[in-house]
Design goal:
The complex is a heterodimer of chains A (653) and B (543). Chain A has 653 residues and is an all-alpha fold. Chain A is 69% helix and 3% strand. In chain A, strands 1-2 form a two-stranded antiparallel sheet. The radius of gyration of chain A is 32 Å and the shape is globular. The termini of chain A are far apart. Chain B has 22 helices and 7 strands. In chain B, strand 1 and strand 2 form a beta hairpin. The chains are: A mainly alpha (653), B mainly alpha (543).
Amino acid sequence: MPDSAYFLPAALLLGIPFLTFFFLWLGGKSLNTAAGYLGTAATISGLLISFWYADPATLHIVKFNWLVIGNKVIELSFRFDRLTCIMLAIVHFVAALVQIYSVSYMHGDKNVHRYYAFLQLFLFSMVGIVVAGSLLVMYMFWELVGLSSYLLIGFWYFKKRTVWAAQKAFVLNRIGDAAFLTGILMLFYYTGSTDFEVIPGKLWELSPGLVTAIGLCLFGGCMGKSAQFPLSGWLPDAMEGPTPVSALIHAATMVAAGIFLLARISFMLTFEARLVILAIGTITMLTGAVKAINEWDIKRVLAYSTMSQLGLMVVAVGFGSWQTAMFHLATHAFFKAGLFLSAGSVIHAVTPSEENTAFDPQNMRSMGGLKKSLPITFLCFSICAAALAGLPFFSGFLSKDAIITEGFLWAEEVGPLAYIFLLIVVFSAGLTAYYMTRQVWLVFFGEKRYSGTQSVHPHESPATMWIPMVLLAALSLFIWFSFNPFNASGWFLHFLDPTESAHLFWVPILATGTTILFIFLAYRQISGPNPFGIGSAETKVNFLEKININWLRDYSQDRYFIVPFAAIAGYFKKLEARAIDSLVEFVAKGSVVTAHVISWVDRNVVDGGVNLTVYTIRSAGNAARGLQNGKIQSYYLVTITGVFLLVLWLFFA
Amino acid sequence: MLGAAAVALWPSKQAGHFRIVALVTLLIEALLAVFLFLNFDNQDFAHQMAETTDWITLPIGSLGIVSIDYALAVDGISFPLVLLAVIVLLAGVVSSWEISQKTRAYFSLYLLLTGSVIGCFLAQDFFLFYLFFEFMLLPMYFLIGLWGGPRREYAALKFFIYTFFGSLLILIVMIGLYLSVIDPLETARVVGIMGMEDAIHPDLIPQIQQWLIDGKIAPEQIVHTFRFQYLADPGNYLPGSLLHLASQYFVGDIPLRLLAFWFLFIGFAVKLPVFPVHTWLPDAHVEAPTPISVVLAGILLKIGGYGFIRIVDGFFPLEAQHSAIPLAILGMISIVYGGFNALGQTDLKKMIAYSSVSHMGFVLLGIAAFTAEGLNGAIYQMVSHGILSAMLFLLAGVVYDRTHDRNIDHYRGLISVMPQYTIITGIAFFASLGLPGFSGFVGEIFTLMGAFQSDALPAWIPALSTLGIVLAAAYFLWTYQRMFFGSFWYKNGDSSVLTDLTVREKTLLIPLAILTVLLGILPGILFNMTGPTIEAWLRGLNH
C-alpha cells in the first residue's frame, strides 16, 4: 500500500543525517567542538523517530516517480516493515553510541568536523539501504555507503597505507557491485521492476535457471560489502581507519548490509543459488577464523573474526534461514561493536605519550597484563568476547545455536554430504573460542610487555568512552533476545517470523562442548612455556606457511586482483602504442613512400610529355602549402568570404 | 535562429579585447539558449523553432534538380546537446583567459568553432550538417597545432587525418543518399500539382510518392534533397536508386545499403571515438591547450554520437538493428579497453582521455541497443560526460598551468597545499566513476539497462560492460590517491607555484559541479526532453 503517512518519517530519517552532513562539512573547523554533540543529537533523534513510527505488524510503502523513460516509469520506493524496524534500531543505536565514544576518542584531531560529517553521510546512506523499497534504490544508497566508507577509512589521509586501504575497499566493493548491478538490470529486463513488492508476483514466470543466475548476481553485491571470499581482502586493511569507524561500519552496520540484502531477496534464492552461497560462506568463515588465530594486531584479529562471523551469517542464508542470519546479525552488531570500542580503549591506553615510531600500539605483543589498569575495559571486552565465542548465557550462544539448529534441519532434508558444512560450522565456532581466548589472554593477562617503553602509561578511558562500551556489553547478554538462555527461539526470532520455531535440545550441548574443548586447547597454550609463540621472533614461520597454503595467505592481498589488472592495463598500453598506433603510422608512412615513388615515376618517366600538368600540380601544391604554413589569415579570409556571401545571400535572396 | 546569430557574429572581430568579444558572443548564445529552453515544449516531438530558407537550387539536366536548404531547428535529440555545447563553449572561453599569444587568431578561430559546433546540432539538412562538420576540423586543427604542447604538430595532423578520413566516408554516403532521395514538396511544385504558395495538403506527399513508384515523373523534374526529414522517410527514395530500401546493388556480397551504413558508422566512430579508431584522441588531448581539450572532450565527441542517432540510425534503421551485435561489441571493447588503458597511464590528461573512450563506449552501447532506454541513456550519457570531461580537463589544466607537468607520479599529497582543488577533483572523480547522485551514474545505468532490454543483444555484452564501472573506480581512485594523499611532495622542487584555485577557476568549476549533481538527482530534466522525441521516432520506425 502506498502510504502517505510514512512520507514524513522517510523524509526525516534520510533528511536529518544528510543535512547534518552538509552543515558539518561546510561548517569548517569552527564546528570541531560542537560536531560530536550535534552528530549524536541528530542520530538520537533518528533513533526516536524510528521507535515512534515503528509498526512492525504492517507494511508501509512510500513511493514517487523518479522519471519516465519510454513507456517505463522508474519509481523510487521506500518501505517500512519488520526488517526495517530492527535494522533502523540497530543502526541508530550503535551509531549514537559510537559517536558519543568518538567525542573523547577523536578529541584533538583537527578535522573532527569532517569526521562527524562523514559519519552522518554514512548514516544517511545506511538508512537509505534499510528503508529502500526496491533494489534500484538500494543500489544507489549501497554505492553511497561505499563512498562514506572510503572517506572514513581514509580519514587520516596523510598516511599512505590508510588511503591505499580505502581505495582497495572501494574497488573490491565495486567488483561486487558490478555483479549486483547486472542482477538488477536483468531483473528489470525480465520482470520490469525491482520493487520488492512486484518481483515475487512475477518470479514464477521465469525459468529456475534464470532466477538462480539473477540471485547469484545479486549475491555479488553481498560478497563485496560483507567481505565474502574472494572479495574479502579489504576488510582487514580497512582497520587503518579510526577505531570507532571500524566498530560502526566494519563490524556492526555496513558489512551487515550484505546480509540484509540477502534477507530481502531470500525469496528469489533457489536451492542451487543457496548452495553456492553456502559454499562461499563456508570458505569465508573458515579462512577468517584460521587467519584470526595467527594475527598479532588487536584490530585485525577482530576484523578477521568479523569476516568469519559474516561468513556464518551467509551460511545461515545458505541453510535457507534468513531469520537466524538476521538474529546473528543483531547479536553480532552489539558484541562486535563492543569489542571494537573496547579495543579502541586499549589502544588509547597504550598509545605512548610522545612520538615513538618503533612502538605499535595495536600490536598485542606489546600489551599484556592490562587487567589491573583497565578494569572496565577488561570487563566489557571479556563479556563481548564470551558472546562472540558462544559461551552460554550470552547472546552469541543463542544466535549460533539457532544457525546450527537450522543447519541440522537442512542437512536432514538434503542428505549425508550436507553434514560436511555443519562440521565446518561447528569447527569454526570452536576456532572462534580459541582465538578469543588467545586475544583476551594476550591483552589483559600475563606479564606487562609494554613496560620496557617509558612513555606508555595505561589508564582507564573517560566515561564518555566506557559508557557506550558498558551498554554494548550489557546487550551481549542472553536476556535481551530470549528469556531461556538455552533456547534460541525466543522473542526475537518470533518477532522476525512468528512461524519460525525450531529447537533441538542437544545442539546447545554440542556447541558448548566444542567451545569448552577449544578454550581448553587455548588454555594449554597459555600454561605452556611459550604461549601462542609470543616469545618467538615475529618472523617465525607459522603453521599456515608450513603447510604452504599460499593462496590462503595471498588471496586477500594484491595478487589476485591488482596484479592481473595492472598487467592487463600495461599490456593494453603497449598494444596501443606498438600495434594500433604503429599500424596507423605504417599506413601513413607507406602512403608517403608511395607518394615519393609515384613522384619519382612522375619525374623520370612521364616527365617529358606532361610538363604542363606537373606545373599545374606544383602550383596547386604551393597554394595548399601556403594554407598550411600557419598563415591562418589566408585561410581565414577564405572562410570569412564564404560566410559573408552566405549571410548576404540569406538576407537578400 | 541561434545558428544565424552565431554566424552573423563571426566577422565582428575588430582590434582590441578579443576575449571580451568572444565572451560576450558566448553569453549572447547562452541567453538565446536559455530563451530556447524556456520555450521548448517537451511534449512536442516535432522540430521546433525551425528556420528554413532555400539556399541553392540548381537544375542539372537529366540528373534532376539540386536543392540544398539552409534549415535549422531543434528537437528533443539535438536540444540537450545544444545546451551542452553552449555550457561547454562558455567554460572554454573563460578558461582561455590566459591565452596570451596571437589572441586575435585564437578567439576568432574559437568563435568559428563555436558556430560550426552549434550549427552541426541545429542543421536539418545533410549538406549543411556536413558543411558545419567539416568547418569544425580546420579551426580545431589550428587551435591544436598553434597553441598546443611540444608535439602539437604531430597531434594536430593526426587529428586532422583521422577525422578527415572519417568525413570522406560520410561524404560518399551523403552523395549516394542525395542521388536516391527526392524532396516531395519541391517536386510537386516543379511537376505542377501544387502552386508555389499553396498550403501543404496532407495527401500530397503519399501522392507524389505513388507517382514516383509508377515512374510518372520525368528525371528532369525530380528535385533531389539533403533534408533530414525526407531522408528518413523510405517513401522518398527513388525506385531502383542506389540506396533504395529494396536496393539490388551489391559490392561483392555486401548489399550497398549495408556498406553505406558501415561507411557512415566508421565516419562517426572516428569522432566518438570507438576502438580501434580512437588513437587520435589521447594525442590530441595531451597536446591541446586546456580550453581546447575541454571543448574537444566536452562537445566535439558528442557530434559523433549525435550523428549516430540522427543520421546512421535515422536513415539506416534496419541496418542498424541488423548490426546491433557488432556495434555493441565495439562499444563493450571501447569501455573495457579504454578503462584498462586509463589504468595504465601516468599522464593525467591521457588518463582522462582514455576514460573518455571508456565513457563514450557506453554511448555506443546504448545506441546499439536501439531501445528507448538505450537511446535516451546515450543522449544523457553524452550530456553527462560533456559536463564531467569538461570539469576533468579544467582540473588537469589547473596543475598544468602552475607547473607545466602533468605526470601523476610527480605529485603527492596535494591536499595539504590545495585543499579546495582536492575537494572539487574528488567530486569530479566520484561523479565520473558513476556514483549515484551524480549524472554519470544515470547515464551508465540507462545505457546498460537499454542494452539489457534490447532483444537483439545477448546479456553477456552489457554484463561484461559493467567491468567498465569497476575499472573507472580503479583508475580514478588510484590517480586520486597518488596525486592528492600522503605527505606533500613535488618532484621538480619549487612547490610554491602550487597554489589553490583562483576565483576564475572556481567560478568555472563550481557551476559544473552543481550541474552534475542536479542532473544526477533530477534526471527528468533531460529525459522529459529526449523521451517524447525518441518515443515518437521509434514508433514511426515500427510502422
